[in-house]
Amino acid sequence: MIVTIDGVAASGKSSVASGVARALNIPYLSSGLLYRAATWAALSQRLPLTDAAPLLSLLNRWEADGTPLTLRPLPQGNEIWVGEQNVTDLLHTTEVDAHVSAAAQLPELRAWVDAQLHRISPPFVAEGRDMGTAVFPQAQAKFYLEASARVRAQRRVQERPQDLESVEAALRLRDERDARQSAPAPDAVHIDTGSGTLEQIIAQVLSHLPAPPTE
Ligand SMILES: Nc1ncnc2c1ncn2[C@@H]1O[C@H](COP(=O)(O)OP(=O)(O)O)[C@@H](O)[C@H]1O
Ligand SMILES: Nc1ccn([C@@H]2O[C@H](COP(=O)(O)OP(=O)(O)O)[C@@H](O)[C@H]2O)c(=O)n1
């Protein structure tokens, strides 16, 4: 079984996906971490984000050298490793936030991310922007999370203390830059995550899924 959870920045995708996956005792995949990791790799090697070739050759070289950039969908949360180095903590920064949408516009990088995701065998929950449309259109259940920019900014500020107005403006800008890949699947269930607590939203998603087989 594949469940997809898509939505814009800070709509609650990772938290809801994690809670749903835990309830179903299956992993969840955070596609955004792969885009963040590719962006971090380009920034750390001072590569341009307007041309995919240098970035893809870096990622392919790391794989050939035996130190691939990989997504580890661990129960305690997704991690990105480059060989034996866990780089996850380097990926949720203002600098990566400011550049990731540019990287995500590169079709060759999208194909690379999709290839990483397609290597993983179901069952899983996959969260991002285009999981239910481009990456796993065959998913058995699809959800699209929404919340107002103000609510989403207030959540981000809880995580990374910053000026609320500038966080909201940055989220709106990223929403615009991500619009092309963020359209909901026609068969996705839309959920306003501003309408309840995280636990209530997780329960709402689970209520749309077939009950797990009894032991
Ligand atoms: N329904 C909710 N009510 C309150 N806080 C929420 C809700 N959903 C998510 N959050 C919180 O909002 C923040 C952003 O959620 P996250 O799952 O990281 O969003 P995304 O993956 O879409 O960027 C996290 O701190 C999370 O705990
Ligand atoms: N399936 C996806 C997931 C992320 N992305 C890109 O990656 C960026 C970071 O995704 P994310 O899910 O980690 O971001 P948040 O919504 O958690 O802030 C997004 O702003 C998009 O530019 C994408 O294009 N397609």
Automatic annotation (TrEMBL):
EC class: transferase
Entry's family note: Belongs to the cytidylate kinase family. Type 1 subfamily.
Lineage: Bacteria, Thermotogati, Deinococcota, Deinococci, Deinococcales
Localization: Cytoplasm
Protein's recorded name: Cytidylate kinase
MF terms in GO: ATP binding; dCMP kinase activity
Primary location: cytoplasm
Example GO biological process: pyrimidine nucleotide metabolic process
Binding site for ATP: 7-15
SUPFAM superfamilies, alphabetized: P-loop containing nucleoside triphosphate hydrolases
Cytidylate kinase domain: residues covered: 3-208
Entry's EC annotation: 2.7.4.25
Catalytic activity line of the entry: dCMP + ATP = dCDP + ADP; CMP + ATP = CDP + ADP
UniProt keyword terms in alphabetical order: ATP-binding, Cytoplasm, Kinase, Nucleotide-binding, Transferase
GO cellular component terms, A-Z: cytoplasm
Keyword Cell membrane set for record: no
Species assigned in the record: Deinococcus ruber
InterPro entries to which the protein is assigned, alphabetical: Cytidylate_kin (IPR003136), Cytidylate_kinase_dom (IPR011994), P-loop_NTPase (IPR027417)
